[in-house]
Amino acid sequence: MERDTMENNQKTGNLTIRIEKELLDSWKQVCEKNGYDMSKRLRIYIQKEIELDKKSKNLIDIIEKC
User: Fold this and answer.
1) pTM score > 0.85 for this model?
2) 44/8 Cα distance (integer angstroms)
3) Domain locations in the chain as residue ranges
4) Which terminus of the chain is more exposed, N or C, with fewer CB under 10 A?
């Protein structure tokens, strides 16, 4: 996987999403357990999905097969 683009000091945008607090809290625990803050982990997911899309693969389909 490519390096996190935030490490390249690129200009950033903001993303606001609505998510149930319980789901958000659970995901925050997963992120912390795996050594990432939520923002960085989400960027990694987005980057990986873009990489897979370029290969005509769907990240959600891959995840659902697990």
Assistant:
1) no
2) 14
3) 37-66
4) C
